[in-house]
UniProtKB/TrEMBL annotation:
GO molecular function annotation: 2 iron, 2 sulfur cluster binding; 3 iron, 4 sulfur cluster binding; 4 iron, 4 sulfur cluster binding; electron transfer activity; metal ion binding; succinate dehydrogenase (quinone) activity
Stored InterPro entries: 2Fe-2S_ferredoxin-like_sf, 4Fe4S_Fe-S-bd, 4Fe4S_Fe_S_CS, Beta-grasp_dom_sf, Helical_ferredxn, SDH/FRD_Iron-Sulfur, Succ_DH/fum_Rdtase_Fe-S, Succ_DH/fum_Rdtase_N
SUPFAM superfamilies registered for this protein in UniProt: 2Fe-2S ferredoxin-like, alpha-helical ferredoxin
UniProt keyword annotation of Iron present: yes
UniProt-listed GO biological process terms: respiratory electron transport chain; tricarboxylic acid cycle
Cofactor(s) the protein requires to work: [2Fe-2S] cluster; [4Fe-4S] cluster; [3Fe-4S] cluster
Annotated TM spans: none
Family: Belongs to the succinate dehydrogenase/fumarate reductase iron-sulfur protein family.
Protein name in UniProt: succinate dehydrogenase
Leader sequence segment: none
Domain 4Fe-4S ferredoxin-type: 116-140
Enzyme Commission code: 1.3.5.1
Length: 214
């Protein structure tokens, strides 16, 4: 496919979470590491492999780290989806302003300026692939940390001028397994296939929570 739009093919290539549909062999092939009689690892010409672009390469595929494995390369991402669902991943707008007198939805009430849209537009590109969760050393299944994907989802609505539940959302993530569990390693930012700076966004959430508490 090569589009990287659905996020359903996230896996680990040479230990790095990524989307298989966008992974190119030339980018990931690595010289096979061999161990000599003395126990030292050798690669390339030292291991008797040819040099240059035509050299031998090894690609190791594995299921997405941090999740239970269903089979083969299929990881069980249901815990991640449940955590996102628990935090209400939808717009909570003022019901009075959002409807007309006869009870119909008035979409014009949801208008916002380009500046307001710019605050969260990048976050709407998240495809919930789980690459950030697989890269996070704290997530590890989600029992002690809701994970960067759930936090990014909440940031998308917290920064949305139309949403009326900012206080409730900040309270929901200000928990021991929420932003308090984040150790700011920022490994989540390096692997995002759509280019979201996940670590920076989480840091901004932390700043918003502290500002609310001040």
């Amino acid at each position: 496919c090569g589009h990287g739009m659905c996020g359903s093919d996230a896996a680990a290539v040479n230990g790095t979470p990524t989307l298989l549909c966008k992974a190119r062999i030339a980018d990931w092939a690595q010289p096979e590491r061999t161990v000599d009689a003395e126990g030292f690892r050798r690669t390339g010409s030292e291991a008797g492999e040819p040099d240059g672009a035509d050299g031998l390469g090894v690609i190791e595929l594995a299921p997405l780290p941090g999740f239970a494995v269903d089979r083969d390369l299929i990881a069980d991402i249901d815990p991640m989806l449940e955590q996102i669902k628990r935090l209400k991943p939808y717009l909570i707008a003022d019901g009075v302003l959002a409807t007309t007198e006869d009870g119909k939805v008035d979409v014009l009430e949801y208008l916002q300026s380009p500046e307001q849209l710019a605050k969260y537009e990048t976050l709407t590109t998240c495809i919930v692939c789980g690459a950030c969760e697989g890269a996070c050393p704290v997530y590890a299944g989600g029992e002690a940390f809701v994970g960067p994907a759930a936090l990014i989802n909440q940031a998308r609505f917290i920064d949305d001028s139309r949403d009326e539940a900012t206080r409730e959302r900040l309270e929901a993530i200000d928990t021991a397994d929420g932003i308090q569990a984040c150790q700011s390693v920022r490994a989540c930012s390096r692997e995002c296939p759509v280019g979201i700076d996940v670590g920076e966004q989480i840091w901004q959430l932390i700043a918003q929570v502290k500002e609310r508490e001040a």
